[in-house]
Design goal:
The protein is of the alpha/beta class and about 600 residues long. The protein is about 30% helix and about 15% strand. α5 runs antiparallel to α6. The longest helix is centred in the N-terminal third of the chain and has 26 residues.
Length: about 600
Amino acid sequence: MRIPLLAGLLLPLLLSAGSDVTGEEVARKPNIVLMMVDDLGIGDIGCYGNDTIRTPNVDRLASEGVKLTQHIAAAPLCTPSRAAFMTGRYAVRSGMGSTGRVQVLLFLGGSGGLPATETTFAKRLQQQGYTTGLVGKWHLGVNCERRGDHCHHPNQHGFSYYYGLPFTLFNDCVPGEGTDVLADLHQTLQILSMMLGAGLFTLVCARVFGLLEINLGLLVLLFSLGILATAVWFIPLKFLPAWNCILMRNQEVIEQPMTVETVPQRLLGEAQNFIKRNADRPFLLFFSLVHVHIPLFKTPPFAGKSSHGRYGDNLEEMDWMIGQITETVDSLGLANSTLMYFTSDHGGHLEDSDSKVGQKGGWNGIYKGGKAMGGWEGGIRVPGIFRWPGRLPAGKVVDEPTSLMDLYPTLKYLAEDARPDRHLDGHNLMPLLEGNVERSEHEFMFHYCGIYLNAVRWHPPGSDSIFKLHFFSPNFSPPGAGGCYDTKVCLCHGEHVTHHNPPLLYDLFHDPSESRPLTPDTEPRFAEILEQTAKAVERHKQSFTNEQESKGPSAESGTDATSVHSQMTWAKILWKPWLQPCCGTFPFCRCKEDVTNI
């Protein structure tokens, strides 16, 4: 009789305990894993139409989740696109749009970067109890006024853990790959310095042989000024691998310069370990890959294995890394409680190729243009895949306009963050992803080239059409080419662009490759489209004015993007030795990460 009695007493307690556990699991906020590839073309991925490069792991995410076919980056270059992604706002709102030839941050020793006044989705989730981590590329600045203030650092923008490249991967990091940073200026300054040296040598010879009376003190002064003038450009440009090619863990420089060959394995290991360390609590991981940006890797297990040369090898290595992250999440039993997201910061770089390696940049499918080409679709339409088993339908395809800026409000919603915020340009994607609505909230989207409004798309209510107007377009070179091959990247200002009046108009629903401009004769709504778009542009501009007024009398006045303190001026971008991150005593910055336990 004691056993049934004991069971009767324990059964309600066990049921109650089980109910509490179930309720805790249901109430727990989802984990977030964001995976962003660098310079990936939308045409590079199997589930987006590529049948010659193997991307089974990315394709698996799409088959088990939701694929977005009109997912748009807010800018066609790294720094402004990532600023918009992190903040849910166009880059011009945070001063991260450029006015001239320099469109991204060039030196870790510069003072430009994502302002401390901006709020990232990481900071919002951190305030909601999430453990937050960023592994990989940052490229949004480090210091402001002195070495070590870390005002732009990921730790100051909501990431409690950081491991990776505070700058980016670029050619200067690998000997023999050339230079990416101000290469033409570098060459010009080198020639001028040689001419200056030759001139000084001639003066010395003339004095020695008595051909010219020159004061020795003046010669010493001219020689000193020549050395100083040469050092001003030689030190920042010739030692770029030491200045920019570094790895940091949180705010400590752990490798300078970095050993590039082992970077992919180290980044992957750090991302996997972050997931494992935080499997028992809500976490946000932003895995910001350095693939497939140049220089391309030569990792032995993947080298020579694809049918598209070294670029294809890098793509397939990237896909394998995505598979490893997915396997880590699944093996820990976190699949049903984790939202996974895959994308690229912008389109592929069409102009990057050479006779030895072949094409180094990505393929943007049927879409015109690519990286750094303003509002042309190939530079801003990117893969967008969400997977969350049990919450999002498997195999769903969404053809509506969406944006990388939508991640910010989406993550806020999932973290149950209902606190007031600044003006946001993104929208919560969950109703669209779950199938509760059919239309995107993006009736209008604005496409910038630097700080200049380049194009606008309009998705009229009740219509399948998606009209896109280009106010100007980059001048491709040489004439007739499909990109800016003479300069390697297109520019957004002055003689580098052609303005259109009336704007070039396309219907992306019928002409996604933007090859057939519409005219009043071929499009009955031509005048209406121009009118509605002009009104939308005015409302968009007014949002800048409203935001400035909401900041009070201390805010700068103005109705355009230039009313924000620019982070992309020469004064902020150029190298300053007192801001350079260093793992030793400056300028003797050299250290290697201990990888024995990795």
